[in-house]
Amino acid sequence: MKALASAALLIALTGCGSSIAASPSPASTPATPTATATATEWKIDPAFNATDLAWIELMIPMDDQLLRVLGMAEQQAADPAVRAFATQVAAGHRAEHARFVALRTRSGLPVRNPHEGHDMPGMMTEPEIVALGKSTEQAFDPLFEKNLKEHLDQSIVLARSITTDGKDAETKQLAASIMTSRAAQLKQLAAL
């Protein structure tokens, strides 16, 4: 199971063009920026391994996108319980997002999104987000709940691989926290 989770993370990341995940040893070799990064090289903190770095680079856009979708749910959901749940989840994700940004800064990663425009598990495509935004109240709730469940499920899979294959202690701690919070959110979502 451990190997499967790690393979899923690396496939998700390397399949999306993350040069960090594909790097043999970012701790020992300065990574070369891609076209989306600055023209200068950056130094990666050796406390982080490639799995840590790839996860950070994936979770920031995943959280960015989910916060956007949660904002829609706070305004458009027909069920007041769904709106309240979206507000609760958004508060936790904003705090989590800040932790990811701090980890990215500490790690030495550049500010970039190597996953922009990719169709990945746990992330809606831009056309799906637009369609969700145009949904009527009755159609909105089940579509939102389906996509939120996919995000929560995928976040657990990715975080599990960090707890086993990550290197940085703070990153591993965040991953363990995400596994716990996402499991609780899945139970709450199922009860809506």
TrEMBL record:
Ranges where the DUF305 domain occurs: 52-191
One Pfam assignment: DUF305
UniProt keyword annotation of Zinc present: no
Signal peptide segment: 1-21
Ranges that cross the membrane: none
Domain of life: Bacteria
Keywords tagged on the record: Signal
UniProt protein name: DUF305 domain-containing protein
